[in-house]
Amino acid sequence: MERRRFLTTSLAAAGLALAHDGEAQTPAGAAAREYYQIRRYQLQAGPQTKIVESYFGDALIPALTRMGMGPIGAFKMDYGPETPAFYALIPGRSIEELATIELRLVKDADFMKAAEPFWNAPATAPAFLRMESSLLAAFEGWPRLTPPATTATKSKRIFQLRTYESPSDAAHVRKVEMFHKGEFEIFEKAGCHPVFFGDALMGSRLPQLTYMLSFANLAELEKSWAAFSADPDWKKLSSSPRYNYEAIVSDISNLVLSPLEASQI
User: Fold this and answer.
1) Residue 74 in contact with residue 61, Cβ under 8 Å?
2) CA–CA separation, 218 and 78 (whole Å)
3) What is the pLDDT of residues 214-244, one digit of tens each?
4) Which single residue of 74, 90, 123, 135 could bond 56 by disulfide (Cβ 3.0 to 4.6 Å)?
């Protein structure tokens, strides 16, 4: 009963955050919203990083691609707490598709063969310390993952993964609403390159949202955020009484990631 109540509460809160009024700025002809699974692999420095990177490139990403999923993101954390850590970003067409990944992977003989060093690592030399995952629904106004143009050429690029926790469901709804009232466009004007925006359906420390931006390097990241902060539209939006009469974000996680060789993003 408690698990059912938790799921109902989490999904209902996320549903409220996605149920904006008629002014939500959804692109004309936009596709149905995607869902995202974000996996975080906590590692020890040394052999684990090589094992997990090989697992991503030789087993997991090829298998997910055969399932028709993608593009798949694979990243290492450059700046953030508890390094080393690798991240996988997996888009899906439905919650069920993401929730049943492991059940389908074990039926894929090619995957099981390629994944053997990771899958069957002994307890005395595990492939990773812990894996945490969260499930998100794409924002209504940004319904699909958008890889940066530099992905196609494998050019230098970094990614910023930001998570905003809110003190209440009502505050969370207002923060999601802010993105639909102009933040998407302000990011693009400032030179930030949005990849995805997701509302957490399941995971820890709810309610929260997560989004990813892409930059050529740290210098561009700093320049773009300065332009964002100075943008008159942002100043107007953030000073609106609906959004600034109390804190609607209680904690921010800010990570800088770089793509692994196998990343499709």
Assistant:
1) yes
2) 11
3) 999 999 999 999 999 999 999 999 999 999 9
4) 74
Encoding tokens for residue 9? 């509460």
How far, in Å, CA of 120 to CA of 55, rounded?
A: 12
Q: Are 129 and 55 in contact (CB under 8 A)?
A: no
Cα dihedral 164/166/170/174 (nearest 10): -30
Domain chopping of the chain, boundaries:
2-259
- Please answer whether residues 257 and 77 qualify as being in contact, where contact means their C-beta atoms are separated by less than 8 angstroms: yes
User: Which pTM value belongs to this model?
Assistant: 0.87
* Omega of the bond leading into 167 within 30 degrees of 0 (cis): no
**Inter-CA distances, 91 with 65, 128, 175, 189, Å:** 11, 23, 23, 26
Other CB atoms within 10 A of residue 256 CB: 16
